[in-house]
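Annotated sample (chain length 139).
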Amino acid sequence: MQRSAVPYGRTYSKSLGITSSLNLSFQKSLEMGNLSHMRTRKSSVDNDGVSRRLRTLRVLKAGDSQTAFAAMMGIEVKRWNNFEHGSPLSKEVALILVRKVSGLTLDWLYLGKEDGLTTKLQRELSEAENGITDEQRRA
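Output written by the structure step:
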């Protein structure tokens, strides 16, 4: 790639046009596969906690049957299974759950905060969680 100096601290690349030196260093990093210096966005959502809460919700509403629960919610069973096994819960499915389960909140689904749950739902979820066996937790 041929480059020539351009006023104001910019670099000129025949293939890229006028670009800043910052963009060129990023391009160079991409070409070399060296992206370790880039910040990665860490999620504040604990996927293990989310999947544990999803499993508790399913046990409360449909017992051991993922198939029955997924059908009740209008979600594909494979997709639900993925969520229960640690795949990030999509906003789309979270909103479906909140709409279909009375008293459920996004704060509980994603963060485990019980503040916004109804007292009845808090009690039911607690009982369902206590009823989940170790074998069900590992599944």
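Annotation: The chain has a mean pLDDT of 79.
Annotation: The beta strands are 3-6, 10-13, 17-19.
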